[in-house]
């Protein structure tokens, strides 16, 4: 009998978990590697209402559901960061792992402004902001910035959005929701400098205005996030979800990708 193939999935976001769950339906177990929390980027979402047939949920509720599915289906999660990928081998921060098939579902990473990273009050993800803040500056004009403002508002935090350009790029629906809540929107107002001041942050705008906030969320865009890949034989490696198409960052696309990857692996294995 042919030895059992080892299937590894890097990333326990919607794409990686959907792949593992679909494989499980074929009776195949995969090993999932995750460096942070279960659920990936969707944990940050204020309200997810664009997934057909799924009731409206917050990102945190979705992450909790995913955690339950992991337990119900007995999915194997290894807490490690995969740093590089060679033919048949993953190198993690803690160990090395062999694979026969590999699914890379590592999502995206933020575009950074390193000179603003002066304390843990500055974050690129809402869920990584300190708790117990009462005011939040948000830098960016896309969906993540507006979504963050709505999430903050709902939690009793006072958000203000600073945008470099004249027009925000976010979904009209999100812009309207922030307008309905009278969340201040500063157009053509790039942030020039961020300073610490008595445990809070001073935000200096391009016009030289100085404002004090408890925290800053930077959401100026994202790029694909891939480990170092030194692989010659790519026939057993699949890249899925946001990592594969950074311009189409949607959970339903990531889920569909995960399911498709599982079906492709079944094909490569010669059918279930
Ligand atoms: C604020 C916000 C609101 C959103 N709202 C919506 C919405 O309403 N509807 C919608 O459809 N989409 C929404 N999205 C987009 C959605 O979150 C993403 O499309 C989806 O999470 C992509 O899934 P993914 O699995 O491809 O990647 P991710 O969710 O980014 O998951 C990747 C996972 O891989 C892990 N990882 C990365 N590198 C490594 C490594 N080297 N080793 C081990 N683990 C690693 C990460 O820690 C992460 O857990 C929103 C996103 C944000 C930020």
From TrEMBL:
InterPro entries recorded for this chain? FAD/NAD-bd_sf, FAD/NAD-binding_dom, Ferredoxin-NADP_redctase_2
- Indicate yes or no for the key word Flavoprotein: yes
Q: Which GO terms describe its molecular function?
A: oxidoreductase activity
What the entry lists under PANTHER family is as follows: THIOREDOXIN REDUCTASE 1-RELATED-RELATED
Report which superkingdom the organism of origin falls in: Bacteria
* PROSITE patterns linked: PROKAR_LIPOPROTEIN
What is the name attached to this protein's record? Answer: FAD/NAD(P)-binding domain-containing protein
Where does the FAD/NAD(P)-binding domain start and stop, copy by copy? 6-225
| Entry keyword set | Flavoprotein, Oxidoreductase
